[in-house]
Amino acid sequence: MTYKSTDIKNIIAEILEAKKDVGGVKSLYFVGCGGSLGALYPAKTFMEKECGNLKSALISSNEFVHSTPKDFGKNSIVCLSCHKGNTPETIAAAKMGKEMGASVILLTWLPESEIIEFGDYVILYSFDASPDHLAGDIDYAGEKTMCALLVAVETLNQTAGYESYDKFMDGVGMITTVIRNARAHVAERAAAFAQEYKDDSVIYTMGSGASYGAAYMESICIFMEMQWLDSSSIHTGEFFHGPFEITDANRPFMIQISEGSTRVLDERALRFLRTYAKRIEVLDAKELGLSVIDASVVDYFNHSLFNNVYPIYNHQLAEARKHPLPTRRYMWKVEY
Amino acid sequence: MTYKSTDIKNIIAEILEAKKDVGGVKSLYFVGCGGSLGALYPAKTFMEKECGNLKSALISSNEFVHSTPKDFGKNSIVCLSCHKGNTPETIAAAKMGKEMGASVILLTWLPESEIIEFGDYVILYSFDASPDHLAGDIDYAGEKTMCALLVAVETLNQTAGYESYDKFMDGVGMITTVIRNARAHVAERAAAFAQEYKDDSVIYTMGSGASYGAAYMESICIFMEMQWLDSSSIHTGEFFHGPFEITDANRPFMIQISEGSTRVLDERALRFLRTYAKRIEVLDAKELGLSVIDASVVDYFNHSLFNNVYPIYNHQLAEARKHPLPTRRYMWKVEY
Prior knowledge:
Two copies of one chain form a homodimer.
Chain A: E1 2-3, H1 8-19, E2 27-32, H2 35-38, H3 41-50, E3 55-60, H4 61-66, E4 76-81, H5 88-99, E5 103-108, E6 121-124, H6 144-159, H7 165-185, H8 187-197, E7 204-207, H9 212-226, E8 233-235, E9 253-257, H10 263-276, E10 280-284, H11 302-321
Parallel strand pairs in A: 1-6, 2-3, 2-4, 4-5, 5-6, 7-8, 7-9, 9-10
C-alpha cells in the first residue's frame, strides 16, 4: 500500500501509537544520497531548530549503513528518500532499518521498485518528470522536500507540540502558487544568465539555513553532474572565514537570499560580492514572493522555492552550452 | 581563570552538578566559523553516533545567533571555538549563550581576548604557531579538535556512560606520536605533490565520517583562502551521486582514506578515481600509522591525523606556487 503527503499526519500517529509498547519514539533519522540527501536538508534544519525532545540527524545512506548511530533501532523512525527506489546504498539503509525494528518511511516516486519491500510506509511524492522539469504543473506541496518536512513537523507536533503548526500548514497550502509565479518571473533573466555564463568552467552556489540544501543540490546535481562544471556550495555564514578569498571579478556566484531568520547572513555575503565580484546571479526569496508565508515558518519554504526556480536557469544553461542535462559519462553507464 | 584539555573531565562534572538545579543538561551545541567550525566536526559526529540521550548539533556561529535552536538555554552546554578570540560572530554566539543561561565553554588559543569574558570555562588549546605549522613540537592531544571531542566524550560518559571511554583515552595518549611519525613519513611525497599540482587552478578534497571536517578545512582554509584555488570538499559517500561526473584525467583529487567504520566508503571512491582519474593524492590513515588506536574509537582520531599531515603538503605547495600561506586580499584587510 502506498500513501501521499497528505497521509503523513496519520502515519506518524500510527507509528507513535505502535511504538508505545517499546518505549516510544526517541530519534528521527533522515537518510538519502546526493539530491535525495539535499532534499531532506530542510527537515534536518527544522528538527535542529524547533525540536528539543527527540534526537535527529541527516546522514548520507552509505555512512548510515557503515557507521550507524548506536541508538538507532526500535525507538527510531528513519525517513529515507530514494527517487526511483534503486539506489543500492539507500536500499541497504532501508533494509537495515527494517531489520533493526525502526519504523521505515520511504519517500519515492515510483510505486514499484526494489526498495518498496523495506518500507513500513511508502509515500509517493509528486515530481515534475517533464524534460528539464519545465512543465511546472505539479503539486509542489507534495514533493519529497515537503514530505520530509511534514514527517518532522508531525513528529514534533504529535510529541511535544509545535506552536506554529497551523502557520506551517498555511504555508504548505501557498507554496505551489508561489513557485509557479516565481518560475515565470525568472524566465527572462535565466536566458540572460545562460548567455553570460555559458563559457565558464566554474560556478559557485551560496545559501544558508534550511535552504542550504538547495544550494548543495544545484552544485552537485546540476553544475557538477549534469554540466561537468567545477563547483561548490558555500554557506553564506562560512564565506567570510575562508572561501571569500577566491572572490574576483571573474568567478561567478549564484546566491540564494532566503526569506526568514538567516536572510541577514545572505545579505551580508551579497554586499561583499557586489563590492568585489562582478558576476553574480541573485535568487531573492522576497522578490520571488515567498513573504506571503508567515515569518514564523517561512525559513522552511525557501528550499522548495529555490530548488524549483533553478530548473528554469538550468534548462537555459544546458541549451546555451549545448550540453543536455541528461548527459552522463559514468552514472548508470559504468560499474562503480 | 583558564583551563587545559586535561581539565575537561572536571569541567563537565562541575557543569552537570550545577545544572541539576535547573533540570539537568539536555543539549550540547558546537559553534564556530570556518576552520574553527571544521575542527568541531569530529565532536558532532561523535554525538551523532554514540549519544542517544542528549540533543547535539554543529552550527556556524552567525546562523546560531540568528536562527537559534528553540531549546537552547539553561539546559544547554555550548562549546565554541575561536582561535584568537576576536571573531565577531562567535563572540556574539558566546555572549548570547551567557545571556540565555547556557554553560559556555570556550576553546581558544590566546589567554586574553574579547571573547574571554563570555566564557564560563576558557580552555587554552595547543597550537603549532610556527611558520606554516611546520615545527611539529606541540602536544596534538591538546588541540581544539581533541578538546571538543573530550567535551563530547566526557558529557556522554558522565550522563549515560560511554563503554569505550578507556579506549578513547588510550587513543588520546597515542595521537601525538602517530601524527609526528606521519608528518615525517609524507615529507618526500609532499614535495612531489607540490611540483605536480603547482599550476592547477582547482583541487578537490575528499573524506567521510568524523574526518570529513578535515577535508572541509583543507578545502576552504588552505586551497580557497590561502592559495586562491577553486575547491570543494566532497563526501566520499556522496561522490557517486553527482560530483563524480566531473572526474577526468586532469582534475586533481586529494582523498583521505580513513581508518575505521567509513573506510569502505573512501576505498570505493578511490577505486573509481584510480580507474577514471589520473591525478590523485592519497592520505591513508592506515599507512600513516593510525591503526594502533583501538577500532572502537579510531574513527574519531582520523581528523587530527589528516589535519596535521596537510601542513606538510601546504607548505610545499605554497613554496612551489610562490604564494605564501599568509597572503590575503580581503581577510583582516577590508571591511566585510
